[in-house]
Every structure is written in C-alpha cells, then in structure tokens.
Amino acid sequence: MSTILNQIRAYLSSLYFPRIQVIDIVEILIIAGLIYFFMAWIQRTRAYTLLKGILIVVIFIVVASIFQMSAILWITSRLASIALLALVIIFQPELRKALESLGNRSYLSNLFPFDASADRGERFSDRTISEIVRAVNEMSEVRTGALIVIEQNILLTDYVNTGIELDAEVSSQLLVNIFEHNTPLHDGAVIMRGDRVASATCYLPLSNNAKISKKYGTRHRAGLGISEESDAFTIVVSEETGRVSYAYMGVLTTGVTASGLREQLHQIQKTVAHSRDEKKRRIRKGQKKDEE
C-alpha cells in the first residue's frame, strides 16, 4: 500500500499546477460568457444551420486524419489558407448584425452619455398615440394596407433617406391619406420620429425568418425585418384582411385590437421616456461631480 501511495505522490509531484490568480478567474468567466452569448445569438440566426454544416466538415476532416487519408488531408491543408476568408464572406450578414447589436445605444449609453448621434430618443405624446390608433382603425375597417414605423433609440436615417421627406405633424387624416390607394405616397413605409412623420414611401429590409407563415406578404416581412434590424416599433395593416399586427424586437404579433395597440404604444412611450430621463439623470450627476 505504501508503495502505491508513493507512486501516486511521485506522479502528482511531476504534474504542473499553474498558480491561479483572481485575474485568471475573471478571464475564464469573461470567455465563458462570450461563448454563451455567441451560442445564444447564433441559434437565432441562419448562421446556426451553416455552423452545423461546418461542424460536419470538421468531423469529416478529423476522421480523415485518424485514418490517415493523405489525399483528403493534402487538399484540406491547401484550402486552409482561404478558409478564414471564406467564413467571413459566408457569415457576413450575421457578423454585421452582431456588430450592429454590439453598437446599440442601449449598450453604449453608459459609456458615452454625451453621444450626440444617439441622442434622438424622442418621446411621442398621448395625442400622437390617439391619432395613430384612430388612423389604424379607419384603415383596418376599409382594408387599406399600411406600414408605420416608429423610431426609438436606434436611428433609422438610412431608411428615412430612401423615402420622401415630409417632416409633418402626425394626424390620423395625414396617415390615412398617405396610404390611400392610387396616391403617390401609398407604396412603402411611413417612418415617424417623435410627434412627426419624418418620411413616407420608405424601403425597409425584408425578414428572412423561415418561420413566418406564407400567408403574410411583403408588408409583414418588411415590418418584421426592420424590427430585427433595430428597436423600432412597426404597425402593419393587412390589405387583404384588414387585420392589424405589430412587430417589435423581431417578434410579429397579429390580430391586435385597438385597445391592445394603444396599450402597447403606451408601453413603448414609457420605455423611450425612461431612457431619456435616465440619460439626463446621468448627465446631471456627472455635472454635479465636476462642480464638486
């Protein structure tokens, strides 16, 4: 027994145990968190299917290495130099979305409270909510298709520039007239900024979500697409059925009633107001520290 214990001690003494410090634990936690958020993000994108395909290729290469398939290994070694570039090209849309999400104002507002380009979270009034709900109800009753985008913290300037600038006060009459059939402005989306209609006939990105029912057309896919690209709140009125839907944070909610739409708009209004008030509070706090 003593011989066995001595062998175990000798073996353990020959092993190298690195000295773990606090910074090492912090690094491990950071890496674990990054891996977790990466996997959670990739599962919500088309990259998940591509990643499974790449995993199959990697398994195939490992098997070829185990059985010493020289021809396959030679081809793989020659292609390895361009593999990284190929991955960047393949995952370009997903990487762009990830970087846009990382640069979201909600993440950076604590670090850059004086970022002028992001200080556009304007609060729309209760009157604007009433005008929107009234216009949506009128268009729903006569089955007039509509697509209304309400900008929040993330600026939609690129999409505003694709349309015709209006900069007009929001009213139910204006919204109904914009989406009236056979009018110059009815095709495309209306983008609102605060209490004003910034632009009409705007082009929006279409969602590539394969889970959307085929019964929903381009208007619904555009509404969902802009909600996936930004934090905008989008209202959709179906031209075929007159049903009202809204898209927010990549989720499409259909069959919305007037009271449900009004309640959701009030929730969005509170969110924008809280974000603006919180930013002002941080600025005042910073100014007070400077004075002290």
Short description:
The chain is an alpha+beta fold. 56% of the residues lie in helices and 12% in strands.
Description:
By secondary structure, the chain is of the alpha+beta class. The chain has two domains: 20-103, no CATH class; 126-280, YojJ-like (1. It is 56% helix and 12% strand. It is built from eleven helices and seven strands. The protein has helices at residues 2-14, 22-42, 47-66, 70-90, 92-102, 105-108, 126-141, 157-160, 172-178, 218-229, 258-291; strands spanning 146-150, 164-169, 189-193, 196-202, 233-237, 244-248, 251-253. Strands 2-4-3-1-5-6-7 form a seven-stranded mixed β-sheet, with helices on both faces. A hairpin with a 2-residue loop joins strand 3 and strand 4. Helix 7 packs across helix 9 and helix 7 (126-141) runs antiparallel to helix 11 (258-291). The longest helix is centred in the C-terminal third of the chain and has 34 residues, at 258-291. The protein is elongated and about 95 Å long.
Descriptors for this entry?
292 residues; alpha+beta; YojJ-like (1; 2 domains; seven-stranded mixed sheet; disordered C terminus
- Overall form: elongated
On the 0 to 100 scale, the average pLDDT is: 80
Query: Multimeric state of these chains?
Result: single chain
Largest sheet: 7 strands, mixed
> Radius of gyration, Cα only, in angstroms?
27 Å
Side-by-side strand order of the widest sheet: 2-4-3-1-5-6-7
Cα distance, first to last residue? 72 Å
Order of helices and strands: HHHHHHHEHEHEEHEEEH
Q: How does CATH name the architecture of the largest domain?
A: 3-Layer(aba) Sandwich
Count of alpha and pi helical runs: 11
CATH topology of the largest domain: YojJ-like (1
Please bin the fraction of helical residues.
55-70%
Strand content: 5-15%
Low-confidence stretches: 105-121, 287-292
Counted up, domains total: 2
Question: According to CATH, what is the class of the largest domain?
Answer: Alpha Beta
Count of extended strands: 7
What structural class do the secondary elements suggest? alpha+beta
CATH superfamily of the largest domain: DNA integrity scanning protein, DisA, N-terminal domain
